[in-house]
Write a structure and sequence with these properties.
Strand content: 5-15%
Number of strands: 4
Low-confidence stretches: none
Distance between the termini: 39 Å
Helix content: 25-40%
Number of helices: 5
């Protein structure tokens, strides 16, 4: 049976999820996380793309990606193939590293962008890995709060543009948005 062709809209971001095969770990050590981020940089050099947010969890990856020059499928194929080669070589494994084709969902609204970014950044909090998103070093949340981004040319802080004020005020509102619960959200934010 043929796989369904993915639709690529170059001006839109996508929420992409990749899981480890049989939900097994994709990352065993800090070096594995760093290698994945290195691969993102290297693929970005040849096939530019933007990430509005990302979170690398032990057995899955969330990214909010837009690619205007190559299809999202092409970009993810390059990233996942390079990481799978690294992973299998390092740990002397064979076979699939990723569970199946990556999940993707088109994000075509302002509120959708905010909620996907929030969902991605709060993933380690929801999983009980950390109490606060700023304490998890394998996500883009820290960069939204002002951490140095020199090694991450693919980051696009578009989510800050949805908040008013100067850069400091936008960062404060961004942080406050992540601290809200569904019960405390304003109706226009829901």
């Amino acid at each position: 049976m043929a796989r369904k062709k993915r639709i690529w809209q170059p001006n839109n971001f996508y929420h992409i999820v990749c899981r480890g095969n049989r939900r097994e770990p994709l990352f065993f050590h800090d070096h594995d996380f760093l290698t994945y981020l290195y691969i993102l940089r290297k693929v970005h050099e040849r096939h530019p793309f933007e990430l509005a947010s990302y979170c690398l969890m032990t057995n899955h990856i969330h990214i909010q990606l837009r690619s205007q020059t190559q299809s999202v499928s092409k970009v993810m194929s390059l990233i996942n193939k390079r990481y799978a080669n690294y992973f299998n070589n390092k740990y002397n494994f064979t076979g699939h590293v990723f569970e199946k084709r990556f999940f993707d969902r088109l994000i075509n609204t302002r509120i959708g962008m905010l909620y996907v970014g929030r969902y991605i950044h709060l993933n380690p909090v929801e999983a009980g890995v950390t109490a606060f998103p700023e304490n998890y070093c394998w996500s883009s949340y820290q960069y939204y709060q002002g951490a140095e981004t020199a090694h991450f040319p693919f980051l696009n802080f578009v989510l800050l543009d949805y908040f008013s004020g100067n850069l400091g005020e936008k960062r404060d509102r961004f942080r406050e948005f992540h601290e809200l619960t569904e019960e405390t959200m304003e109706p226009e934010v829901l």
